[in-house]
Amino acid sequence: MACEKYIGWMTEAALGELSPRREAELLLHAGACDACREAYNRAKAIAAAVDRGVESLVADEPSPQFRARLHVRIAQEPAPVCSTWVGWVAAAQDSRRLIAATASAVALAALLLFVIARLPKHSNPAPNVASRPSTSPVAVVPQATPQPRAETPPELRHARHVRHPVLPRSPDPQILVPPGQVEAVLQFADAIRAGRVDGGQLLTAQDRLTKPLKIDDLTIPPIEIQELQVNVPPGADENPGQS
Amino acid sequence: MLNGREMDALATSLSGSAVRLDDSLEREFEQRLADCPTLAYRVALGVLRNTAEAEDVAQEAMLRAYRSFHRLRDRDRFRGWLVRTAWRLSLDRIRASGRRERRECVAMEGWRETGAENAAASLEFERHVASALDKLPEKLRMVMLLAAIEGYNTREVATLLGLPEGTVKSRLFHARKQMAESLKWLVKNTSAG
């Protein structure tokens, strides 16, 4: 009966997991019991064999070419870049990096706000600039009669904030053309140059159109209503109900 | 450890790229390159038991580590991350090839054929140990292998796996106990023979 109890302790004792009190008791018993002593020694041999066997499975070293191949493969890897905010946070291990990262973020936000404040509130596409080809010998369009400078329409006032590409200066007059009307304006200019359209007449008509329209007061004469005259035939005034 | 020549070669090869890891990260990773590949190799070898495949897996694990190194917040956990990666890659490779079943069959055949006479032979002995190891649940097996790699230092294994030391001790005890039960007949026959 006592041996059965100690046999149950053998594996734990061999693995060094038995409490010191129990281990002392087991050893005391094994000193007097040949069977338990043999079982205890065998359990210890098994435990040692297991440890030795597992160690031997992983005791190998990689081949000498292993590291060289690894270095080559790492060198061939596409470069990992700290592009995400996670990467920034991970990279900001020390406080100086964290401060620099925070300052950069604040500066970027301020720049963004400045740019947004400078942007026009209404989206107004920049008008195209159409110029007559420089090879044309005669300047036909508006240079003949300079127009008075009209006030800029409200929707075009923001256009001065838009940065236009710098075009080479041309001696010919240039006009601003709304987007999509370049072809029509060029055709109109060609028509004036070819004489198909009389520019002077157009300007006269424009002058007429620009004059303020005079509207006289509306006077409505009273309507005369003549007295109604009825011609009654003789004898028609008798009462027909009395007949 | 990398010697000076290897370090120079590595630095040269890395400096040729347009954008690499940050300098400090690069240095940190080079330090990991000194000892970690062997750890990854041994973990893979413990699972695969094939040196060529273990080297492939260890290299893949190191490459993944290189790609993700800048995202690793706690660099002290690099070894644990690498161990788990190597372990997972090894298991994936076994599953992909169906080699585990085949390997177990080979081990069992050897078990039956050799019996007690040649059990003391180291090759056969290793085969039996490997077979017993494969039968362990994955959690116990990992602890058992890492303990063997780290010289049965439960604290280091606990650090590697991010587990309480008591948990590692308990798992290690159960793993060794189950393996001892599996291999009991082997030692008995050996002593009898």
Write the layout of secondary structure elements.
The complex is a heterodimer of chains A (243) and B (193).
Chain A: H1 2-7, H2 10-14, H3 20-32, H4 34-58, H5 64-76, H6 85-91, H7 95-118, E1 128-131, E2 174-177, H8 182-194, H9 199-210
Antiparallel strand pairs in A: 1-2
Helix pairs in contact in A: 3-4
Chain B: H1 4-15, H2 23-48, H3 51-68, H4 78-97, H5 99-114, H6 122-134, H7 138-149, H8 154-161, H9 165-192
The first-level CATH class of the largest domain in chain B is given as Mainly Alpha
CATH arch. level architecture of the largest domain in chain B: Orthogonal Bundle
- Helical stretch tally of chain B: 9
- What is the average of the pLDDT values of chain A? 73
Sketch the major β-sheet of chain B. Answer: none
Number of strands of chain B: 0
Strand proportion of chain B, as a percent range, falls in under 5%
Helix content of chain A: 40-55%
Global shape of chain A: elongated
Distance between the termini of chain B: 45 Å
Return Rg of chain A in Å: 54 Å
**Quaternary structure of the protein:** heterodimer
Outline of the structure:
The complex is a heterodimer of chains A (243) and B (193). By secondary structure, chain A is mainly alpha-helical.
Question: What does the model show?
Answer:
The complex is a heterodimer of chains A (243) and B (193). Chain A is mainly alpha-helical. Among the domains of chain A are: 1-93, no CATH class; 126-132 and 174-209, no CATH class. Helices cover 49% and strands 3% of the residues of chain A. Chain A is built from nine helices and two strands. In chain A, helix 3 (20-32) packs across helix 4 (34-58). Chain A is elongated, with a radius of gyration of 54 Å. Chain B has 193 residues and is mostly helical. Chain B is globular and about 55 Å long.
